[in-house]
Amino acid sequence: MLGWKLFIRALTLITDNLLAAMKVSLVPYALAVTTGLSVAFLYPEWVGVQLDPENPPPPGFVFGTFGSLLVGIFASLWVSVGWHRYALLGELGDGWIPPLNGTLVMGYLGRTVLTFLVALLAAAAVVTMLVVLLVPLFGESIQTIPLVAGVFAACLVFYRIGVILPAGAAGKPMRMNDALIATKGQAQTIIVLAFVTVGVTLLLRLPLLLEDTNVLISTMYQFVTGWIGLMLGVGTLTALYGHLVEGRPLD
């Protein structure tokens, strides 16, 4: 099954090139981890707490959380561009600080936002259509069906047009129409790839649902699983682009 082979390719990209993966991601991700842990250390009593309007958190926690979110996004973009370029072009810096191309990173940010927006619009259209068609006939008992269908639609659209992300990172920008043509007829492959990737990431995060978990330990575990999820997500897009667009073998 092609979707499974693409996932294995994304996984082996990491395991077979672990040193390169660390060089591409260690410094940016450490920056994100340090920022997040600083907030956790300063405000441990507010980490993981459900916000209550009657008992708002202190401004320092709010600004710190927002700041760590921005740093995390920046680090993810930096890692994503770097891993795409290593996997597709063999580009790797000499030291432990990966190359940072601001133009490519900003372009990647714009393409990511655009891809997510299109995927969300597709999901909203599917959910709305099914709700209008099914709820009057069967009632609210089937409301989960439109939601599941919307998730399928979002994943399908995201991965079909998402090949524009590694293309742009490699300096070979694609239009969305070109991405749709390149991924035409691969709906089953893309759904399998998306759900295996998401499923593995969710399984890794199951321990976070345990009660009475130490805040520091759970925060560190969240960062580790977040790194794995990030590298797998970027790797699946890289494998998809490399195979369907550039015709690279998966073996």
UniProtKB/TrEMBL annotation:
Keywords: Membrane, Transmembrane, Transmembrane helix. It comes from the Bacteria. The keyword Nucleus does not apply. The keyword S-adenosyl-L-methionine does not apply. The chain crosses the membrane at residues 20-41, 61-81, 113-139, 145-169, 190-208, 220-241. This is Glycerophosphoryl diester phosphodiesterase membrane domain-containing protein. It comes from Jannaschia pohangensis.
